[in-house]
Design goal:
By secondary structure, the protein is mainly beta. It is built from one helix and 23 strands. The N terminus is likely disordered.
Length: 302
């Protein structure tokens, strides 16, 4: 009995270990995107049991199906390097021109087209997937010109034919996607609220990459209003309903989110209702009729 219990515990631990190992492999972030073009010219879609089961080195990564009532659709699936098996569920009849599909790799190359004859074997296609190496950009530099109110970024592109462009990010938000031939970028900071900003440039590949971002952080001061007012104050902070501004002659209140986007613009008020705002940090940029200003960080709670 003890031997059986020991064997059962050992087998259970091995099964858990195998499942965790498979789950870790399945949840990885590096890989190549595969595109599935599904079609049913009759317009009914596929029955729920019919679909393309995708496994890599024995680990299942997806089941691609055309929903009933849908004549056509496209789906993408992220797959790691390894031996990819595309299979049709055993026992499900394959009807040509009804269950039609094509499979493309991450470089948009057609790697498989469903046959136009009845019958599909359970494992109908095996593909050796080799995802190219993800290379970071190099010689990244950033600089802030306060007088010109411009942040300048420059870099060298990775030596890879698979780079499709670069994403320019400011505080995590996408500013612009630029072509592979672009190796510099200038951002006008004239309308940004005073604060610290992080600029990043990320190479975009034809497949998924988990790359460390190349970033530049700088403090940007908005000098459009010359005189700072020490007489202004806000309360309560944090707040979940009303924020009151203590001070006289309030001309304008601009409210920005934490990535510098303008949320609201108020004139001649000392009361700001934040009930509808999502929880988070907001920047209140306040100007008075005397040309004074104040910049305050306000936390909205729920």
């Amino acid at each position: 009995m003890k031997k059986f219990a020991t064997f059962l515990i050992s087998a259970t631990l091995m099964l858990i270990s195998a499942n965790l190992s498979a789950q870790t492999e399945k949840n990885q972030t590096d890989g190549c995107y595969f595109r599935f073009v599904l079609e049913d010219p009759m317009g009914f879609g596929w029955i729920p049991e019919a679909g393309i089961r995708v496994t890599v080195d024995g680990v299942e990564y997806g089941f691609i199906n055309l929903p009933w009532g849908t004549p056509s659709a496209e789906e993408t699936l992220l797959l790691p390097s390894g031996e990819v098996h595309f299979s049709w569920p055993d026992g499900i009849g394959f009807t040509p021109f009804k269950h039609y599909f094509e499979i493309y790799n991450s470089f948009n190359e057609l790697i498989y087209t469903s046959p136009d004859v009845p019958g599909l074997p359970e494992s109908f296609f095996i593909y050796q997937n080799e995802c190219p190496e993800c290379l970071p950009l190099t010689h990244f530099e950033g600089a802030y010109n306060q007088e010109a109110k411009v942040v300048n970024l420059s870099w060298l592109a990775p030596e890879s034919e698979y780079v499709t462009g670069f994403d320019i990010l400011r505080n995590g938000a996408l500013l612009e996607h630029v072509a592979t031939t672009v190796v510099s970028y200038a951002d006008n900071t004239e309308n940004l609220v005073t604060g610290t900003y992080t600029y990043c440039v990320v190479p975009v590949y034809a497949f998924a990459c988990d790359l460390e971002e190349q970033c530049f952080e700088t403090y940007i001061e908005n000098l459009s209003v010359k005189k700072y007012s020490s007489a202004l104050s806000l309360y309560p902070n944090p707040s979940n309903n009303m924020v009151y501004i203590a001070g006289e002659d309030i001309a304008n209140v601009k409210i920005f989110n934490k990535i510098g986007q303008l949320i609201n613009n108020y004139n001649h008020t000392n009361r700001i209702d934040v009930t509808s705002y999502q929880a988070g940090i907001y920047i209140f940029n306040i100007t008075t009729t005397k040309g004074e200003f104040g910049v305050y960080k306000v936390v909205v709670t729920k």
